[in-house]
Design a protein that fits this description.
By secondary structure, this protein is of the alpha/beta class. The protein has 14 helices and 9 strands. A hairpin with a 2-residue loop joins β1 and β2.
């Protein structure tokens, strides 16, 4: 069975649940289908638009709505999208994803501007988002769901993740993480590896505007930054690939002892010519090996040398030579290190304008 068919089977399994077994106090939880049939084709409403079943990233939120919130019905825009784009939680999640450089991973167009994505769907549609609790709880959205029910519901999310097979699962909120790993005592921003998947425990997006947690907003954002740095670093690992080197391709020969078509590691060639850059030679690197390979080695330089060395090279390539513009989103992630405040995007964007 393909992923979509498996997810549809999981949805049917959820719909077949006897709700008398899902009680909070003396009130039963309800199924989403009790309110609308708009989400019959997705496991939870969250995956209505955020339904990229081949995404490397899955975001797990806690629960979708409450019985009090749904008393007056569901907005047409919410039925279409699976979320209300005017709700602060959704706006904050959208911003966290963008600011922490999922642009490259999600292959967003270079012209994408998250500030004008009013329905948030262009970004959300690139990933898969779901809820650990697939039912509608009694009372208001602020009411608690007993951890016993979260643990019970975790069987659904575990199957969902098994079907999607992501590389990274971002658990937003304590219940989203503890429901998957009830025996693990992890601090915010820490992770667990299981079956080739990395699970991160992150604050719920609403916590970024809350004073309940005794941690600053900036430190909460730092957890996301560290997570994406860790995740993205795995894609810039050095390559052992060897390629024929021809000194005449470059304006000067940095491998003076090598003859024509000597086999040299591609990373070594790119590295040396980036460390002593000229516009012609950087253009040659891009023509011979492609932007992605040149950028990968450039980003590795950040880990091999000082920030000053890295900044000097970036200034030349991005500002003086005006190169690698197509890959600007990838560089935003690393260029954040050059700013005194990694969350001030204006400082970063000076490098790509």
């Amino acid at each position: 069975m393909d992923k979509v068919t498996q997810l549809q089977a999981l949805k049917k399994e959820i719909e077949q649940e006897d709700m008398s077994h899902w009680m909070i106090g003396n009130q039963a939880c309800k199924k989403i289908s009790d309110y609308t049939d708009a989400f019959n084709d997705c496991v939870t409403p969250r995956s209505k638009i955020a339904n990229n079943v081949n995404s490397e990233i899955v975001i797990v939120l806690q629960d979708w709505s409450s019985q009090d919130d749904l008393k007056n019905g569901i907005k047409e825009s919410t039925k279409r999208l699976g979320y209300d784009p005017t709700v602060l939680t959704n706006k904050l999640l959208h911003e966290l994803l963008y600011v922490n450089n999922l642009n490259n991973i999600l292959n967003l167009d270079d012209t994408y501007d998250y500030k004008t994505d009013n329905e948030l769907d262009e970004l959300f549609s690139k990933i898969y988002i779901t809820n650990i609790f697939p039912f509608i709880k009694p009372n208001s959205m602020s009411s608690d769901i007993p951890e016993t029910l979260i643990q019970k519901a975790s069987k659904f999310i575990k199957k969902e993740i098994e079907i999607i097979k992501p590389k990274l699962v971002i658990c937003c909120g304590r219940l989203a993480f503890d429901g998957l790993f009830d025996k693990e005592n992890k601090a915010w921003g820490e992770s667990i590896e299981q079956n080739a998947i990395t699970y991160f425990k992150q604050f719920h997006p609403a916590a970024y505007q809350s004073n309940k947690e005794p941690i600053s907003k900036k430190l909460k954002q730092q957890h996301w930054y560290n997570m994406m740095r860790s995740y993205y670093s795995s894609s810039i690992a050095p390559s052992d690939k060897k390629v024929p080197f021809n000194p005449s391709d470059f304006t000067y020969n940095l491998f003076w002892s090598s003859g024509i078509n000597t086999m040299i590691k591609m990373d070594d060639i790119i590295y040396k010519y980036l460390m002593q850059p000229s516009q012609d030679n950087v253009q040659t690197l891009i023509q011979l090996y492609g932007e992605d390979e040149v950028l990968r080695v450039l980003n590795n330089i950040k880990f091999l040398h000082s920030v000053q060395v890295y900044q000097t090279i970036c200034d030349k390539i991005f500002k003086e030579y005006n190169l690698l513009k197509k890959s600007k989103n990838i560089n935003l992630f690393y260029l954040k290190d050059l700013s005194n405040d990694i969350f001030i995007r204006e400082n970063i964007e000076n490098y790509i304008q």
